[in-house]
Amino acid sequence: MASLCFFEWLVLLALALTLGPAAVETRRSLALELLVEAEERWGAGLPGDLPELEPECRRLLAAFAESSAELTKCLGRRARPVRLCQTCHLQYRHLLAQYDNIARAVGNSSESHNCAKSILTSDRLQIVVTLSEFFNETWETANCANCLKNGSEGLSNSTVVFLDLFNKSLTCFEDNLQGQTTYLSPNNYTEVCRNCNETYRMLNDLYNNLQRMNRQGGESGHSAHLCIDVEDAMNITRKLWSRTFNCSLPCSDTVPVIAVSSFILFLPIVFYLSSFLHSKQKKRILILPKRIQSNASLVNIQEKYS
Ligand SMILES: *[C@@H]1O[C@H](CO)[C@@H](O)[C@H](O)[C@H]1NC(C)=O
Ligand SMILES: *[C@@H]1O[C@H](CO)[C@@H](O)[C@H](O)[C@H]1NC(C)=O
Ligand SMILES: *[C@@H]1O[C@H](CO)[C@@H](O)[C@H](O)[C@H]1NC(C)=O
Ligand SMILES: *[C@@H]1O[C@H](CO)[C@@H](O)[C@H](O)[C@H]1NC(C)=O
Ligand SMILES: *[C@@H]1O[C@H](CO)[C@@H](O)[C@H](O)[C@H]1NC(C)=O
Ligand SMILES: *[C@@H]1O[C@H](CO)[C@@H](O)[C@H](O)[C@H]1NC(C)=O
Ligand SMILES: *[C@@H]1O[C@H](CO)[C@@H](O)[C@H](O)[C@H]1NC(C)=O
Ligand SMILES: *[C@@H]1O[C@H](CO)[C@@H](O)[C@H](O)[C@H]1NC(C)=O
Ligand SMILES: *[C@@H]1O[C@H](CO)[C@@H](O)[C@H](O)[C@H]1NC(C)=O
């Protein structure tokens, strides 16, 4: 061993002596090369456990972060009174698109940089998946699909009509309350009740129709709720109308109401009539033996007391 080391040392010494500064130069450049190679591997070379994302993936992640911030801002701002679906559907679609951009590369071997693997599945937190799931759940709980068009590019026609009527109702309320709040006496809402009953009734009818249609479509996967914007608007208006203004509800569909209530009213009469007729029929059958019996007892009594 020692002799080999000694031999090696001798060779090196001879080399150093013969080549001199050239050897030092080559050694230095070798070290530099190694360093550069290590840096490159750190940056991009090794697959899998890299501390840095590839630039393309970093761009996708930044885009997702941006759109999730936009959506969060919109949801928070439109929380009360609820205007989530009508205001934030564009932001939601952007977020879905960004998530899709990241997720699309799953199992795509032709893609050189697999962003889905490194962004969506590389750690136990998986924050991008968690965020996306949260937005999906929120959107589903709000039933926003219910007031958007099929392709969800904008509000559905019925929703537009409903929101327009809602706006008209609120405007009518405001107009008829003008100059009332300044008085100390309790507000007189008779004007509101009289002048806004038309719009209110239309709004109420439309809402009931939408609900009915939604329930009929309920078997095909839809839930029983309308979208939260519509529900909340109706909730607010109904509470104002009946609790704050104490207006009576104008009967919406009078014909079926009258039909049903008159049918219920006549039910006892029908019942008594039918039972009366029924018993009359029975009496006719029983009439003979009864009269004989009663006559006999009458005779008995008369005999007793005479
Ligand atoms: C795989 O990636 C290529 C290149 O980006 C793309 O054209 C193709 O649509 C992807 N395939 C799938 C199934 O996502
Ligand atoms: C959220 O919903 C969209 C569309 O329905 C779907 O493509 C996406 O995979 C969902 N996100 C998660 C994390 O499930
Ligand atoms: C929604 O659109 C898809 C195609 O974009 C169509 O297959 C589906 O039948 C439509 N659904 C309704 C309820 O219109
Ligand atoms: C919704 O309204 C638009 C324009 O007002 C009309 O072109 C479209 O046919 C309507 N859609 C439905 C489903 O009524
Ligand atoms: C109703 O809509 C008009 C025009 O879009 C708007 O200026 C007004 O503020 C709305 N009224 C209410 C009560 O939201
Ligand atoms: C409310 O105002 C109407 C007219 O606008 C009036 O006829 C009515 O007597 C008033 N009611 C009360 C309680 O002040
Ligand atoms: C609204 O109220 C007015 C006055 O009370 C009444 O004449 C009218 O018939 C009502 N309209 C409806 C739709 O109930
Ligand atoms: C209506 O409002 C009440 C109280 O303000 C609330 O408890 C209820 O959940 C609301 N209903 C809907 C359908 O939003
Ligand atoms: C609402 O109106 C009815 C009569 O229409 C009255 O008996 C009741 O006291 C009123 N309630 C409130 C809270 O004003």
Care to describe what's here?
The protein has about 300 residues and is an all-alpha fold. It folds into three domains: about 40 residues, no CATH class; about 90 residues, no CATH class; about 90 residues. It is about 75% helix and about 0% strand. The protein contains eleven helices and no strands. The chain is elongated, with a radius of gyration of 43 Å. The termini are far apart. The mean pLDDT is about 75. The structure holds 2-acetamido-2-deoxy-beta-D-glucopyranose (9 copies). This is OSTM1 protein. Keywords: Membrane, Signal, Transmembrane, Transmembrane helix. It comes from Bucco capensis. InterPro entries: Osteopetrosis-assoc_TM_1.
Question: Main attributes?
Answer:
306 residues; mainly alpha; 11 helices; 73% helix; binds 2-acetamido-2-deoxy-beta-D-glucopyranose; OSTM1 protein; transmembrane
Can you summarize this structure?
Helices cover 73% and strands 0% of the residues. The chain is an all-alpha fold. Helix 9 packs across helix 10 (228-244).
Outline the secondary-structure elements.
Blueprint: H1 2-19, H2 21-45, H3 55-77, H4 84-103, H5 115-120, H6 127-141, H7 157-177, H8 190-195, H9 197-216, H10 228-244, H11 254-305
Helix pairs in contact: 3-4, 4-6, 7-9, 7-10, 9-10
Keywords: Membrane, Signal, Transmembrane, Transmembrane helix
Protein name: OSTM1 protein
Signal peptide: 1-16
